[in-house]
Amino acid sequence: MFNIETLNKISAAGTGRFSENYNVSDNVENPDAIMVRSAAMHDMQFGDNLLAIARAGAGVNNIPTSRCAEEGICVFNTPGANANAVKELVITGMLMSSRKIVQGIKWAGALEDGETTVAKQVEKGKSQFVGPEIKGKTLGIIGLGAIGALVANAAISLGMKVVGTDPFLSVGAALRLNPAVTVVKSNDDVFAAADYITIHVPFNKDTEGMINAETIAKMKDGVRVLNYARGELVNDDDMIAALESGKVSCYCTDFPNAKTANAEGIIATPHLGASTPESEDNCAVMAADELMEYLETGNIKNSVNLPNAEMNAVGTKICIIHKNVPAMIAAITAAAADNGLNIANMVNSSRGDFAYTMLDVNGNVSDAFADSITKIDGVIRVRIIG
After folding, report:
1. What H or E segment, with its residue span, contains residue 322?
2. CATH T-level assignment (fold) for domain 83-268
3. Which of 326, 297, 291, 292 has its CA nearest to residue 310?
4. How does pLDDT run across 122-159, given as a tens digit for each residue?
């Protein structure tokens, strides 16, 4: 029996996938795994039983991923599961930024019949909300992953030109792009070409504040900027200054704060990117499947802190999380030989400072063998499956 703790309300589409071998609740003790959406986990202490955390969404800033790796806890996310929901909001934001729709709605909602009827006020005042069509304009995309690619293809269908950049563009991602999308080498190429810019990159030390006074200066005058990825990617003070000067016509963000919530020229939505029932279902299903696969077989798919690795075992599977250091494989295989085990198959993958090794062994796997592996310097966690 595996115990799964839910830290947020998780869609039943996901929790319903667990079999009777799982106890899923928001109050389980000593969980084997945790499912989470936005709950802050950085101050949480994790029990020795905890093997995995699955984030029902893409961003994992609320999870201490590095500390989890040090403690042998595999952290998963659900890339692409909410991509369509975010894509639709990005397209909505682009239209709102052009046509002054939000401002027009607020203005129309305050009209009342008086000396002049509402209809006449509308005809007289509508010109203040004139804005350009997006057809024929150029959309620049920084980050052509699951969301960026969908946005690119949708923009092409709407008659836009699209330029995009992504230093980590995979072959699979490139094949998903409409051939009309122009892939350029750098962010600067996007800044120079685009009438609209949307960013779809993770937040980390390299991307923090990537939209700032220096990069904004490289953009076209009157550019419209959309941020439905992470609030910290944009320097708020620099963006507000650019709006005041007219360099930026509009800034759309899904991450309002005290500075941006009511600032002139900013359209702020309350983190609605993945707030659709379809997205929540998709994320929960993927998170549940990732946890079951890992708990039952040791296979890792879509981890953010450990390497992905899969192996079908015929015998007993030994799963080892360890530091990515020299001579580790030699020490593990020597321990297997010393305990009379034949290794029928082996998979080893690494990610930064950490690695994951799976052995398919024939023979009697004793507690003494597990202890001998655990005692190897640099080994973090050992699991025996089967």
Report:
1. strand 316-323
2. Rossmann fold (3.40.50)
3. 297
4. 999 999 999 999 999 999 999 999 999 999 999 999 99
